[in-house]
Amino acid sequence: MPLVAGVDSSTQSCKIVITDAATGRIVRQGRASHPAGTEVAPSAWWEALTSAIADAGGLDDVAAISIAGQQHGMVVLDGEGRVIRDALLWNDTRSAQAARDLIAEVGAGQYAERLGVVPVASFTASKLRWLRDAEPENAARVAAVALPHDWLTWRLCGFGPADESPLGPVLENLTTDRSDASGTAYWSGITGEYDLELFERALGHSAVLPRVLGPGEQAGTTSAGAIVGPGAGDNAGAALGLGASAGDVVVSIGTSGTVFAVTENPASDATGTVAGFADASGLFLPLIATLNAARILDSIAALLGVTHDELGTLALAAEPGAGGLVLQPYFEGERTPNLPDSTASLFGMTLTSTTRENLARAAIEGLLCGLADGFEAVRAQGVEARRILIVGGAAQNPAVQRIAAQVFDVPVVIPTPGEYVAAGAAVQAAWALTDERPNWALSIAAEPEVDFRPIIREQYRARRAT
Asked: Is residue 234 among the annotated active site residues?
């Protein structure tokens, strides 16, 4: 069978896997770093993509490629296809007031009914409203709006400014997919259409929006003739890479934390807690996201002067509930709950509870309890949960695995470490190539025994900010 490539253009880096289209077996892979920060020049993503492709040995023998990327980021282009200003990423919270303004004007219920989502600072519409209000001259120049994976796909297909790209700035050839479009707060997973009134309310005028491709549809070809797939938002890409189906809830612990499930029916949560996203297979992806995830463990490990493995060892030396010590881990503000200006707090400090062991456990419990709150919100949308698939680097820590089995009340499964977002993009590439979705096997690394300890969640709820 031919080879296909999947790309994960994430917040921190660009990763590519080149796989056998029949089995999903990785033949080779590459990566390159992205700049730090919440405001990034898209050209840095393009440079990282080309570097990652080179690191993976190039695409000469690759028949198809697809790009999954970080959701929500705002890429604004002028009429010549040039980026007007650095992209605002999903984790840039300067648009928090803009989100509140949009909700005040339209109503949370109307947003949920029309789109399946309610604006928060992360969403593209909120960032466009911020641009309109804070940088009106830049907003007036906007001829097209794209998401990170849309822009990379467009460039990969040969489009861009005339002096940089062989096919020139054909804005009408911008494409996206339903999963990423559903995170803009101006495309509806319910109707499958852009809501142009809501888009123009955000930006202040009309502009070209990417054509929304269906699962397995082709966006174009590279200069070498490789098929380019539709791409996806990172979480939808991970769902494809994991082969998630009904009954599976995915918990991802990365720079951000996410909880999502593949369902046949769209979600519509007027509180905005659960985003009613679409997935990349033609179904739906109700999702919550937290701004704080693996970096919680980074922070506390650094504070204690230990490695992540040592942090886990300390945590397992403490009892469930950490002696009453509770970490509310909103170090970077928070999206779920929607508290962009919040900070982290440590509760229950006494002479007895304040130990290195309890602080280590409180960090892991706080991380997982924030995600467990999201799990309950997703489940409240009618999602059936038979097992939880936990992915991300932190999931490989034995302490995180054991404590997760104490925090969640359904079985926890830890897939073998892998680049699941890139793997999902590779699934898309194979789908676009063969016109059939592949079915690749999932390897499991651990299945900790169910050991639900209600005290952990009870203590966290008692301290939780709302």
From this structure: yes
